[in-house]
Here is the input.
Amino acid sequence: MDEGCDELAAMRSTQAWPWTVAIRPARRRVSGLSLTELLVTVGIVGVLAATALPAFGRFAGQSRVTVAANEFVFSLQTARSEAIKRIAPVVLCPSSDVAADDPVCSAAGYESGWIVYVDANNNGAGDAGEPVLLRTEAPEGNIVFAAVGIGSRVRFNGSGASVQNNGAPLPGSVTLTSGDTQSRVTVQANGRVTSAKVL
Here is the structure.
């Protein structure tokens, strides 16, 4: 009988019985990233950010110049339309105190802001007490205004033409620059105002 038991034990160790099932431990599904995948992802994001940041800065500069040019064009068009409506000279000039109760023109450039006023005494000086129609504060960012031809004042007569104090035509332009972005606002002698991106 010992012999039969040994034979049965040997059979059990070498053969699987038909009613036995091999049980394997269940594989647990692991979710998440490995360290290598995480480092590759961080590297790709870093490269994309390094590429996009200069472009974003350039876009922000272009946007600031565009906004300032649009505000300047709006102010010029307002001055011209008010001159035609009132049949009186209306002037746009730089002012460093646009928030004051009675702002006046200043020698500062347009970078500090500007006003539109009715030149009631027709001297083009922007005296205290003359009605101020529009006040525009300094534009955001480091925007440089360079006037050519029109100088520090743009004066529209009652017919809407851009003129000097003596009535002579006064065409010109103002170039707005921030970094490598430029926009030019042009005032023709007939008073027409246009804007164009230069760079």
